[in-house]
Amino acid sequence: MSLTPKLLQQGAAGSARPVYIEDVFSTWLYTGNGSTQTITNGIDLSGKGGLVWIKNRSTQDFGNTRNHWLFDSARTAGNSLYTNSTSTENTVFAGLIPFGSTGFSINTGDDNLNGTGANVYSYVSWTFRKQRKFFDVVTYTGNGSAPRNIAHNLGSVPGCIMIKRTDTTGTWTVYHAGIGNTKALFLNADSATDTNSAYWNNTTPTSSVFTLGGTFSDINASGGTYVAYLFADNAGGFGLTGNENVISCGSYTGSGAAGNPITLGYEPQWLLVKGIDTTSSWMLTDTMRSMSVTDNGQLYANISYSENIMSFPIVYPTATGFAFGSGASNYNLSSSNYIYIAIRRGPMKVPTTGTSVFAPTTYVPNGAASRKISTSPSFPVDLAFFNERSRTGYTGTWVNDRLRDVKKVTYIFNGQFDEEDNLYTFEAFNNDGVVLNGSGYNSSGTSGVVLWLFRRAPGFFDEVCYTGTGSTRTVTHNLGVVPELMIVKRRSGSETGGVVKYWFVYSSALGNTKCVFLNTTDNSQSTGVWNSTTPTSSVFTVENNYVNYSGDTYVAYLFASCPGVSKVGTYTGNGSTQTINCGFAAGARFVLIKRTDSTGDWYTFDTARGIVSGNDPFLKLNTITAESSSYDAVDPDNSGFIVNNDATNFPINVASATYIFLAIA
Fold first, then answer.
1. What is the pLDDT of residue 148?
2. pLDDT at 8
3. Which residues contact 448 (CB under 8 A, 6 or more apart)?
4. 3 in any annotated domain
């Protein structure tokens, strides 16, 4: 099924309006300001209800105890609980954490939630909105008798239930489908499972009730007050058809070796993992902080420690689930058993505006640490291309992305280079832009920089990292439509040779037997790299050692034409002037053009530097030459863009020549 804006608006025939993961869950990073601030994450908490979970993650705060703070709509606003503690409900912030229709506010400068301290503190918040087949919050008063059924509105059988007594101290008692109805875990402790029929009366919860089996004071003391958080498990209910899963509560057995892929049927953005056989902390990781193929930012629900940044991947997302790195240690021990909660990566909605998924911007480096470059309107950045505009002979265009970790860089001009550690430009990719440090492309005294910032979204852009097998194979992606432009680069490995490390480009206009190279001027080449197989809406095919050498690692960027947002296309030059109609309403804000029947550079234009009726600033992705604005190469047009021709100086419209392009509105 094609993912189109029209279908998006209609939803399934005769059904209610579709719900997507971005409507009900958010990981939001913020910096404390010591006063008040509003977190606008797009989640309706005041109208729907839900849970906000906040943690001070600052590494400079390691010596202090900073609890996990939980606020929900079922209890008094601002009253908090701590997952890492048996403490009773804390009322100190009553009324100071109001829930809104597009997020929540923090009306305090307390260091635990919004402080500045001796250094600027950084925080993570996870928001769970109440929604059938995703999440529910229930409060009840204990009656001291068994069995006891507690009604809920999850609309499906819970995969996990977390219960906390609120009127006095008590452990967090956890039911999980992966351990069954005779056992329990404890969210505030690293202990293994405990077996007792008094927890759940040996009764599996249903889509309307869960059962308490005894009079344990932690779950059902007479007169005690309790809150329960319920998480669904592969219950569907989301997406255009209403049958897509967004949350899974599963289990797996460790292999003791890197890999051990766990299949969810989607790419996750958030994971909570716990070993159940022996002592093991509750590991929390997410893609906003760093759950990448190269490293992990870890927190633990049962520990008050600050964030631990691992320089290797413990667990990393795949297009269909998650897998483990060689440093997985306690979370992939051979023959050990584990449970998890996984939440799907968003967005699930097809974008309808280019500004929601792409931002061209320029800035002048100033040497300032933690410098924010915002996307407007805001969106989380997944991919960044950037280039110093007036400097010749440097490194040309750099490429960083979230899935490889923001501090990993590849260079387009230096296509022979593997991926490198780059600690000199990006500190982070946030929910609403990127954060630069004081060096690299933000060094004081260097010239202006252009940034092209992309967000992954169905029908527009997707990214996949994979490891070569040495034999023809398919690679799963989540673009949701057939890719029309694919850019594949080897990240690292042992294969050597002249073009092994080039940037290989597939274009639907050239077909599945040819490619061009992003780092050269070469015309299209006949090749077997795609196995003469056209990609589909779920997989693309790679064959030979250039893009699939056994054990080497690769990254692939996939683009498609998205109505009103992007256009991947081709045109034939007319030697004069012609309009390239992309179906846009207000013109292209970014254009990439490459001649394919003969040699030609990869020309880039954007509105941040100027797409105007006169001369236009341009850069070439395949060179390290400085920006030039000596020619009137392109002109604006509401439907897309106009190409002019200067066959000697700027050959992007030579008569009878063929070109491919990517344009973004």
1. 96
2. 35
3. 362, 363, 364, 365, 388, 389, 390
4. no
Whether 191 maps to a domain, the answer reads yes
Is residue 11, in this structure, part of any structural domain at all?
Answer: no
Q: Which residues contact 53 (CB under 8 A, 6 or more apart)?
A: 68, 69, 70, 83, 125, 126, 127, 128
CA–CA separation, 604 and 435 (whole Å): 24
What the block records as the tokens of 600 is 């030609």
Would 239 be classed as within a structural domain?
Answer: no
pTM of the model: 0.95
Angstrom distance (rounded) from CA 600 to CA 617: 18
Residues 92 and 152 in one domain: no
Q: Which residues pair with 467 in a beta bridge?
A: 553
Same domain? 574 vs 530? no
Contact in structure between 637 and 587 (CB atoms under 8 Å) = yes
Strand partners, 247: 343
Q: In terms of domains, do 528 and 439 share one?
A: no
Domain end call among 454, 484, 508? 454
Please count the structural domains in the chain. Answer: 6
Say whether both 157 and 223 belong to one domain: yes
Last residue of a domain, one of 111, 129, 147: 129
Domain that holds residue 95: 20-129
Q: What DSSP character marks residue 243? A: -
Q: Are 429 and 406 in contact (CB under 8 A)?
A: yes
**Sign of the alpha-carbon dihedral angle for 109, 113, 115, 118:** positive
For residue 615, the SS3 value is coil
Lookup: tokens for 225: 């007050």
Residue 262 CB neighbours (<10 A): 22
Residues 161 and 253 grouped into a single domain: no
Indicate whether 145 and 116 sit together in one domain: no
Judged by DSSP in three states, 21 sits in: helix
Position 329 scores a pLDDT of: 78
Long-range contact list for 307-315, CB < 8 A, 24+ apart?
307/57, 307/58, 307/59, 307/124, 309/59, 314/283, 314/285, 315/271, 315/273, 315/283, 315/285, 315/291
Same domain, 27 and 124: yes
Amino acid at 158: P
Q: Are residues 576 and 545 in the same domain?
A: no
Walk along the chain (665 residues) in steps of 10 and give the mean pLDDT of each run: 36 67 97 94 97 88 78 94 96 91 95 83 96 98 96 98 98 98 98 96 98 93 97 98 97 95 98 96 96 91 90 92 87 96 98 98 90 92 92 78 92 81 82 88 80 98 97 98 97 87 96 96 94 98 94 97 98 97 98 97 97 94 91 96 89 96 98
Q: What secondary structure does DSSP assign to 649-662, as a single string? A: TB-SS-TT-EEEEE
Six token digits for residue 663: 């344009």
